[in-house]
Amino acid sequence: MRLLHTSDWHLGRTLYGEDLLAHQAAFLDWLLEQAVRHEVAAVLVAGDIYDRAVPPPDAVAVLDHALRGFADAGIAMVITSGNHDSAVRLGFGGRLSELAGIHLRTSVADIARPVVLGGADGEVAVYGIPYLLPDAVMAELGAERSHASVLAAATSLIRADACERGIARTVVVAHAFVTGGLSSASERDIRVGGIGDVPASVFAGLSYVALGHLHGQQTITTGVGLRAGTIRYSGSPLAFSFSEWRQAKSVTLVEIDEAGLVTTTKLPTPVPRRLREVRGRLDDLLARAGTDLAGLADAWVRVVLTDTARPVAPMERLREKWPHTLVLDFAPQDAPAEGTADLRRMAQTTDPVEICGMFVKFTSGGPPDNEQQAVLADVVGAALHGDLPAAPAEPSFAEPVLADSVSAEPVLAEPVLAEPVLADRALAESVFAMIDAAA
Ligand SMILES: [Mn+2]
Hints:
Elements: E1 2-6, E2 14-15, E3 18-19, H1 21-37, E4 42-46, H2 57-73, E5 76-80, H3 87-90, H4 94-98, E6 102-105, E7 115-119, E8 122-129, H5 134-141, H6 147-165, E9 170-175, E10 208-212, E11 218-219, E12 231-233, E13 250-256, E14 262-268, E15 275-280, H7 282-287, E16 300-305, H8 314-321, E17 325-330, H9 339-348, H10 352-364, H11 370-384, H12 398-403, H13 409-412, H14 415-423, H15 425-438
Parallel strand pairs: 1-4, 4-5, 5-6, 8-9, 9-10, 10-12, 15-16, 16-17
Antiparallel strand pairs: 1-13, 2-3, 7-8, 11-12, 13-14
Bound molecules: manganese (II) ion (MN).
């Protein structure tokens, strides 16, 4: 019997502001083609169908269209909710869609209610475990406050049910962080709060465990007493972060033989655009745009600039060559590593000369030299005595510098950074105008 295992569609998600929905819809069309071509008995979707608990309407429309396609083709689906989904919203109308072969498993009550697939070689029972938040389900499952405990309780129910039915070949679809799995930057950590990951041993005795949550495909091989290849993350069909740019995305074709032994094959998913990361000085990178970096013109690109001084309008210049540049980060060469500590210190300092000096260090990678320091002191002194040229109505330095750096976002979120800078904006601006003039 053949099954197709996929997860983490995250319908409605964007990639650094880039709309992915058309690519997600194309993936779902492709998935249906694969399901038909490989004559699978069912498609298993292990959670994170949507990116958000309240998905945007066009993402709902895309899922609706896809489900109808599978139902029309007579291919069963077993879908569980992930930590990004609202189980109640995703599960709406579940008993109705079940009549069309679309089996939503979004509640604890349905964990031990399998979808029994019949084939020429006998029956396979497929169970769906929705993402189980320990606090929400521990009482119902009689479990402790940990993922390991609630999942162990869930799989006990499943083993008991399969035993009662006399079905030896069992498949579980679940959304969890299993010990030993490798994560990437685009997953929302479900271990927060000390509730822990799950040992593979909770899945002992099952023929195949179709996992979701981790976005890189991988097989978990740390289970004691488990056959290798039986516990697997299919990974997401698309990359959702640059940390995944080297991953080849796929869905997993699962073949279960009569004895319940499993073989898996990766089917590479369509790639709408490759992700690429480059690092270097702006001028050097742009000079390579016609040669070894020519391929970046079609790619989604993250650029890490190592220029010591921030170049003017870097994003605009990069997008002239590589229009799909999405992320621009700065990592000045030889820059001191204590940048964040500097920002904290800035929040506590009241000496404008020192603040300006930190800004020079932040933007150029090094502290002001003696000459610059003298200019700073002069200008600040003049400003404090009211002997200052009028500041322009729309100050221009703070915004472009901070707004074009994605890496600055988490720092900006801390109010301590923005305030001292902005409060002294007119002052600092004049200082920098004079430094520019002096340079
Ligand atoms: Mn996910």
